[in-house]
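Usage

Read records sequentially. Each one opens with the input sequence:
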Amino acid sequence: MPVKIRLQRHGRKGYAYYHIVTADSRAPRDGKFIERIGSYNPNTNPATVDLKFDRALYWMQVGAQPTDTVRNILSNEGVLLKKHLLVGVRKGAFDDAEAEKRFDEWKKDKENKIAKSEEQLNASKKAKIEERLTAEEKLRKIRAAELAKKRANLVAVKAGDTEEVVKTEDVEEKVIEVTEKSAEVEEITTETEEKTDVTEENASENIEEDKVAE
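and closes with the structure output:
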């Protein structure tokens, strides 16, 4: 029975994750399987892999054929390297201690690369957050400046209306003063005319008396 190591789809639409299983190559993709040896979640950054290393190595040693995606996963997890080192031990190229040493060195180097990648990813996220906060702060300042300008314009408009009211009141007071002065002038003119009339009457009476006396 040809055995394949492949992915079995789970999850919902738009958020799929996968079980890593060994199954008969003739079985449907999501059908019956022999053994589940891990899981793979591509929705995280970086992708999350939970693998039973020893069982994956066993199935590779007995001839199970991984799919392309699973082969990449096993390579990243070191399963293919471990298989290659064990083949070297069996052929006498080096002993078990040397094989373990080489594998540990590879694993340490891989962990350093992952840590560096995570640091770069975190730095990138932090830079994006700072950039977004800076943009929001600039936008807030611009809106505050516009609001202050609108308030200043509103105050100026209100101040202008007050000045117009004051000017109108001043004009009305001046008009009243001029009217009062005009009335006073008219009264004085009337009094003067009355006095003039009286004087003319007196003068006429005196002339008539002088004529009578003659």
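Summary fields computed downstream for this record:
- The longest strand covers residues 3-12.
- Residues 50 and 202 are 136 Å apart (CA to CA).
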